[in-house]
Amino acid sequence: MNEREKNASIAYILSQSPLKPRPARARAAGMLRAIGLRYIFWDTGYSLFFAAVTLAAVTALFLAAPGEYRYSAAVAVAPLLFLLTSAFAETSERADGLYELKQTCRYTIRQIAALRVLCYSVAGAAFTAVVAAAGAKDGYEFISLFPLCLSALFACAALSLAAMRFLRGKWGGAAFLAAWAFVSAALPFSLGERWETLLGGTPAAISAVIAVTGAAALAVQLSKMLSEADKYAAA
Amino acid sequence: MLLLNNVTKKYGKFTALEDITLEFSGGVYALLAPNGAGKTTLIKMLTTLIFPTKGEILWNGDGITGLDAAYRDLLGYLPQDFGYYKNHSPRDFLLYMSAVKCLGRDTAKRRTDELLETVGLSDVRDKKMRKFSGGMIQRVGIAQAMLNDPKILILDEPTAGLDPKERVRFRNLISSLSKDRIVILSTHIVSDIETIANSVIMFKDHKLFVNDAPAAICRTLAGKIYESDGAVPPGSLVLTERQEGGRTVTRFACESGCPAEARQAEPNLEDVFLTVFRDGQDDCLGVA
């Protein structure tokens, strides 16, 4: 029996067993209960502070952006709360010398990072609503802009988790932040009005479908990060 | 029992460890080899930080990767570069690590206070760690490794950078913590392990070279270690030199033909280490 057949047999036996592996949702809830929010965000104060300062500066720029580019500006700014908080936290976690140690604990640092991402996504969604409300002229435009902003947020979150899973160096989080910021800036600057027209002309229903797909991709990434210990070596 | 079965670790084309088979069943095991020999690679595999390219690591017959959190529950680990939170007290830090190790709140408080007592840091338990000495930080490190009362305690170069007094203190601490558990200690400082290790594991050329009790390893050089304040015979291996009564006494390993004025000495682990890991010479002394 080769390794593949052995794993398939084990998976089959487990699927027939009354003791099935816990789904990621239950794992996340269990972790939240056991660790508590205080320790999930323990010693992330500096990174959150720098994220808040950067975000305040970018938000000020967004509010000063010309009205004819409000879709482009809103979509670029919407994922920033999530992006800055998660990238700063991950980079500082990697640099503080405890990353490997925390990877050997019952709840690994990657699982804790996944929980943080979940919390940042919830905060990011709230921030997105504020950005969409500030960028929209009226209620109709809000309905069209909000799902677009959510799509950007969830796409950013899902890709950021994928980067966290596969980039092993200290600067993986920061590299993703830089890449996303470059692409978000490059699109409106290079395409100009065409980008604004494309975003403004996207029907709300299509934006909503993209947002839901993004949320599903984020859920898949979160689930993988919470449960697949054997795929991600830290060193 | 922790078992490594024909474990190989490669990084691209570079082989860090090749075909290692080892069994750990209880007591202190010392990994003794020069820097770059593969000690840290082995430790990272044992702590699931990296995975073998070939072979398997089993705990009581089950693969450690599959055991996942159940295996990590058995593990206490002090890494080589132990980072710590400068702005927190050791008590806060240990309570945080207890939460990550999933200890209940009451257990966490009790274990934290017990361990701070054990490592002699009770009087500074609420002081920020930024002013702690290297030895004190290492003691915080061993305390966090012991929080979950691990069955497997893994210490990577725990005495590097410590002054002699702290090193002795740390050795005694490790010795006292080694009952009913596997302690795997990596070091290149021979004196750290001579007295406390039940078994010494040496790697050479990224392969397992020897795994035996210190006394048995030393016996491989019995009758081959000499000391002399005169000339050292050609072909012998100079190990150490020391000053004694204004004369330079040379300790050397010699297979045969030693001068009559040289006196035979009891081989120690340092002799073995220097003989095995000498630069650019083949082993002519039959160690291991």
Give an overview in words:
- The complex is a heterodimer of chains A (235) and B (288).
- Chain A is globular and about 60 Å long.
- Chain A is mainly alpha-helical and 235 residues long.
- The model of chain A has no long low-confidence stretch (mean pLDDT 84).
- Chain A has 11 helices and no strands.
- Chain B is an alpha/beta fold and 288 residues long.
- Helix content of chain B is 28%, strand content 29%.
- Chain B is built from 9 helices and 14 strands.
- In chain B, the strands form 3 sheets. Chain B has a 6-stranded mixed beta sheet with strand order 6-7-8-3-9-10, with helices on both faces.
- Classes of the chains: A mainly alpha (235), B alpha/beta (288).
Q: Mind summarizing the main beta sheet of chain A?
A: none
Q: How widely separated are the two ends of chain B? A: 25 Å
What is the β-strand count of chain A?
A: 0
Q: In percent, how much strand structure appears in the residues of chain B?
A: 25-35%
Please identify the oligomeric state: heterodimer
Q: Give the overall form of chain B.
A: globular
The SS-based structural class of chain B is alpha/beta
| Main sheet summary of chain B | 6 strands, mixed
How many DSSP H or I helices of chain A? 11
What strand order characterises the main sheet of chain B? 6-7-8-3-9-10
User: What structural class should be given to the helix and strand makeup of chain A?
Assistant: mainly alpha
| Total count of strands of chain B | 14
Task: Provide the low-confidence segments of chain A as ranges.
Answer: none
Low-confidence stretches of chain B: none
Short description:
The complex is a heterodimer of chains A (235) and B (288). With 235 residues, chain A is mostly helical.
For the structure shown, list the relevant keywords:
heterodimer, A: 235 residues, 11 helices, 0% strand, globular, B: 288 residues, six-stranded mixed β-sheet
